[in-house]
Design a protein that fits this description.
With 443 residues, the protein is of the alpha/beta class. Helices cover 48% and strands 18% of the residues. Helix 10 packs parallel to helix 14.
Length: 443
């Protein structure tokens, strides 16, 4: 168990290292003569979440401290959280230096939240073979939102798109259609419709084409001086990489379930150690993810109540009432966990069903073992001695008192039968510290 626990800690850095890390493309590592201010490169390759928002905010601040002339955000995203998108848009619109968004490499896309981030840039460009659009709000599983929440989310996203497009002088009509009709277009169509400014083959080409353009930075006009600028990549820190990995509703839910299951196994089987250690680590990681995700505390409380009931079922004789109640509370809590007025996130129903069946099966096994143990004849105390067989080791009073060896112990015994040393006996009763025995029946 100690080796297994150590293995968890040894594998953790390897798992983090195996996660996708924003890195600069080889063509971006271009060094200028030093006369032109450098450009800081941020690479976003994945969903938009609090880690992405923190990364971009930190990158803009770092660029200002370095005296950079601009920030380039190389973007490839399928979308993400609306709250995180609003934070990124706010930081880009209020940035102290020009921000350029480059949808790249070829095959990449700026989908959903990526549309708002791209349009919020001072200069927006796309690589050949890329696309942009489909900004209609959906749930965390990509499903349509139903009821009044659909209209509310759609209207908000449409107004956000129009505001950004007006601020940056882009196609307002297309911005609204991208939300309401889920329009998606190629890079060539995006340039024709004035959704982006131009097409660039790589970061070097992007900086060359952006050079000399006038952009608005906090209400003042700034002429871009980017041709031949040195490109300095700014990568995510370890904390941001970890948060980027776990800030996904399904990942956070799986971590929480693994943590609860590990602690449940440890509580019902004290001394196993490894499930408790692994469960505690998973639960702490889940708590870190839930801190940045919009959660419904009623749902969280129901999950906690369900876990407590399942643990209690292993110690209390409730004939399954606690176990069934725990699973019901667990499922309801899982469905409500991300059900908030400002959130469209949902947990995959398959994950909820799988977790509920796993907990139910484990609870059934534990309950069955408890019932079987309770029905089994006791092996300790007076009840455990009655019916046990032993042999006579010494005769104290012929036909009355003998010394017998039973259950690994020497006992004084009384017998109505005449016994001799070596005879087999069976315990019929326990009277204080003396046994009542009789000659064992031969079969």
């Amino acid at each position: 168990m100690r080796r297994a626990s150590l293995l968890v800690f040894l594998l953790a850095p390897w798992l983090l290292a195996a996660t996708p890390t924003p890195t600069a493309t080889p063509t971006a590592l271009v060094r200028g003569s030093g006369a032109v201010p450098p450009v800081v490169l941020l690479v976003v390759n994945g969903g938009i979440n609090p880690a992405t928002a923190d990364y971009i905010q930190e990158g803009i601040a770092a660029a200002e401290e370095r005296g950079a002339g601009a920030v380039v955000v190389q973007l490839d995203t399928p979308g993400g959280l609306l709250d995180s998108t609003k934070v990124i848009v706010k930081d880009m619109l209020g940035a102290p230096l020009p921000v350029l968004v480059y949808v790249a490499p070829s095959g990449a896309g700026a989908t959903s939240a990526g549309v708002f981030i791209t349009m919020a840039a001072n200069i927006a460009a796309m690589a050949p073979g890329t696309n942009i659009g489909a900004a209609h709000p959906v749930s965390g599983q990509g499903e349509d939102i139903g009821g009044d929440m659909r209209e509310k989310a759609e209207n908000f996203a449409a107004s956000l798109g129009r505001t950004i497009a007006e601020r940056r002088g882009r196609n307002v009509e297309w911005a609204e259609k991208a939300v309401r009709d889920s329009l998606s277009i190629t890079e060539n169509e995006a340039v024709k419709l004035k959704v982006v400014d131009f097409i660039a083959t790589d970061v070097t080409d992007l900086l060359a084409k952006a050079n000399g353009r006038t952009v608005d930075v906090r209400g003042r006009s700034v002429v871009l001086d980017t041709a031949g600028a040195a490109v300095e990549p700014h990568d995510m820190r370890l904390r941001q990489r970890l948060l980027d990995l776990i800030a996904n509703p399904n990942v956070a839910y799986l971590l929480m379930m693994a943590g609860l299951l590990g602690l449940y196994v440890e509580f019902t089987n004290p001394g196993v150690i490894f499930p408790g250690v692994a469960g505690a680590i998973c639960l702490l990681l889940a708590m870190a993810a839930l801190q940045v995700l919009p959660i419904n505390y009623t749902g969280l409380a129901l999950i906690g109540l369900g876990a407590a009931m399942l643990v209690a079922e292993a110690f209390l004789l409730s004939f399954g009432v606690l176990g069934v109640g725990g699973i019901v509370a667990f499922v309801l809590g899982s469905l409500l966990l991300f059900d908030t007025p400002d959130s469209t996130l949902q947990i995959d129903r398959g994950l909820i069903a799988g977790a509920a069946m796993s907990l139910g099966a484990y609870s059934f096994v534990i309950g069955w073992l408890v019932v079987r143990t309770q029905r089994r004849r006791s092996s300790v105390g007076a009840e455990g001695l009655v019916g046990e067989h032993g042999d006579v080791r010494r005769v104290v009073t012929p036909g009355r008192q003998v010394k017998v060896f039973v259950h690994g112990e020497y006992w004084d015994a009384d017998s109505e039968d005449a016994l001799a040393v070596g005879d087999s006996v069976e315990v019929t009763a326990v009277q204080g510290l003396r046994l009542r025995v009789r000659r064992a029946q031969r079969h």
